[in-house]
Amino acid sequence: MDFGSRRALDILLRADHGEPDGFTFITKQVHGVSWGFAGTIERGSAQMSTQKGYYFLNGMLTEHFDTGQSAPRRVSLPLLPEGGSSQ
Q1: Neighbouring C-alpha atoms within 13 Å toward the C-beta of 28
Q2: Do residues 37 and 63 lie in contact, with contact meaning Cβ atoms separated by under 8 Å?
Q3: pLDDT tens, position by position, 23-81
Q4: How many angstroms separate the CA atoms of 76 and 55, rounded?
Q5: Residue 3 forms part of a structural domain
Q6: Among the listed residues 26, 31, 24, 23, the one whose alpha carbon sits nearest the alpha carbon of residue 2
Q7: Which domain covers residue 70, as residue numbers?
Q8: Integer Cα distance of 82 and 84 in angstroms
Q9: In terms of Cα–Cα distance, which of 12, 15, 29 is closest to 64?
Q10: Within a domain: residue 21?
Q11: How far apart are CA 14 and CA 35, in angstroms?
Q12: Rg (CA), the chain
């Protein structure tokens, strides 16, 4: 992902599991790195579903390297409204 220019690399999901209490996925490896997530989708404080932050993705995001190392971190990411922009 290139956060400096506010553009994100589209990464295909290798596995996607939606459960009533949780959400998990792992991406395909790109340039020696894959990402995994395990957590929940929760209601945020935004008043309307067309606003950023109406829902949040909360949980553990783990960066997996082709060296066998990994770097987990707890995240709370606002979901963008359909057709929305991160800007």
Answers
A1: 7
A2: no
A3: 888 888 888 999 999 998 889 998 988 888 899 989 999 999 999 999 999 999 898 88
A4: 10
A5: no
A6: 31
A7: 13-76
A8: 5
A9: 29
A10: yes
A11: 10
A12: 14
What does the chain come to in residues? 87
- What's the CA angle centered on 30, arms 65 and 34, to 5 degrees? 40
CB atoms < 10 A from the CB of 28, how many? 11
Question: Is 53 inside a domain boundary?
Answer: yes
On whether residue 46 sits in a domain, the answer given is yes
The first and second tokens of residue 52, run together, are: 């950023």
Res 74: pLDDT: 97
Question: What is the pLDDT at residue 79?
Answer: 84
Q: What is the model's pTM?
A: 0.68
Q: Is residue 73 classed as helix, strand or coil in its secondary structure? A: strand
* Total domains present in the chain: 1
3 pLDDT above the threshold of 70: no
Q: Please say whether the beta carbons of 85 and 54 come within 8 A.
A: no
